[in-house]
Amino acid sequence: MTYNVRPARTSDVRGILALLDPWVQRRVLLGKEVVTLFEAVQEFVVAESDGELIGCGALHVMWEDLGEIRTLIVADGWLNHGVGGAIVASLEARARELGLTRLFCLTFEVDFFARRGFSPIGEQVVDPDVYSQLLRSPDEGVAEFLDLAHVKPNTLGNTRMLKHL
């Protein structure tokens, strides 16, 4: 059971959608439009084995020092084989290359992220000036990071976590 993690290509978008769909059907993750995935493909890494996508994850930059790990998915048959950890490690390396010093995630998988150094966070984790700038972002992930009321229905049961790199 060997696999490798690499940057995503546009040809991977349909495979990313196929990985995402079962989790959307289970109401664990929100669905994404195809166009949204094409627009964000440079944020993604994928794990593949014998040419088949078995996992993916994305790093979204939110601020000069802050990024979010999002859309972390591992195919059912590959759970507990280190794939998710390898994807997170790849995204963390990319975050460091970009100069980020903090990573955010919104997750049901608290233990998984805690083992990788993430901790639950409270309300205010950025200073007021940054907060006022982030409020201007149309990105739903930023709204989830800020814990804004209009995204609460999407985040019920999730834990907001942060890691200092």
Describe this structure in words.
This protein is an alpha+beta fold and about 160 residues long. Strand 2 and strand 3 form a beta hairpin. The longest helix is centred in the middle third of the chain and has 16 residues. It is globular.
Key terms for this structure?
single chain; 165 residues; alpha+beta; seven-stranded mixed beta sheet; 7 helices; 35% helix; 27% strand
Number of helices: 7
Specify Rg, calculated over alpha carbons. Answer: 15 Å
Strand content: 25-35%
Determine the mean pLDDT.
Answer: 91
Head-to-tail CA distance between termini: 30 Å
Secondary structure tally: strands: 7
Report on the biggest sheet: 7 strands, mixed
Which strand order do you get reading across the main beta sheet?
A: 1-2-3-4-5-7-6
Question: Any chance you could write out the topology, listing elements then pairs?
Answer:
Elements: E1 4-7, H1 13-25, H2 34-39, E2 44-49, E3 52-63, E4 66-74, H3 83-98, E5 102-107, H4 110-114, E6 119-120, H5 128-134, H6 140-146, H7 152-155, E7 159-164
Parallel strand pairs: 4-5
Antiparallel strand pairs: 1-2, 2-3, 3-4, 5-7, 6-7
What's the short version?
This protein has helices spanning 13-25, 34-39, 83-98, 110-114, 128-134, 140-146, 152-155; strands at 4-7, 44-49, 52-63, 66-74, 102-107, 119-120, 159-164. With 165 residues, the chain is α+β, with helices and mostly antiparallel strands.
